[in-house]
Amino acid sequence: MNFSIVTLTNEDLTQYKVDMQEAFQKGFEDVFGKTEDIILPERDINHSLKAKGSVAYKAVVDGEMVGGAIVVIDEEAQHNHLDLFYVKCGIHSKGIGKRMWDEIEKLHPETKVWETCTPYFERRNIHFYVNRCGFHIVEFLNEKNPGADMPEDFIGDGGQGMFVFRKQM
Fold first, then answer.
1. Where is the N-acetyltransferase domain (predicted)?
2. What is the pLDDT of residues 43-99, one digit of tens each?
3. Which is nearest to 16 in space by CA: 5, 31, 27, 2?
4. Please, what is the Cα angle at 39 between 133 and 33, to 5 degrees?
5. What fold does the segment set 3-168 form as a domain?
6. Where are the domains of the chain?
7. Rg of the chain over all Cα atoms, to the nearest angstrom
């Protein structure tokens, strides 16, 4: 397997967004059933892509884009954020996500802290971040403790809340 993680190019952007949306949609629908709602609207992807310090990566195996991540790098504080992370549908449980994350950490060795979040219902993600990547759960966002950056129309957690993860490097 020829694996690489590279900076996303404009020519891959449309497919990248489609693949990412499909992965988020499937994760939600596997738990809650089919929905007409879009779980990860394109505006949310664009928001991450346009954030100050944003870097978008794509994972490539044997010439095929198989996943991606958008990180936001604070070069001064080095408290960085993993905004969005996905492995293309149908490619899970092959070590791609772990390899992606390991490469992202290598690309940002100056990082002091990584932070991310995932919905309460996403057991696969929780296992991945805690048991495979070494993050710790540090907060539970819900109706009594909403996230400061959470859009009011956010539905991606299925109303069950979100875990915030942190990894001290």
1. 3-169
2. 999 999 999 999 999 999 999 999 999 999 999 999 999 999 999 998 877 899 999
3. 5
4. 95
5. Aminopeptidase (3.40.630)
6. 3-168
7. 15
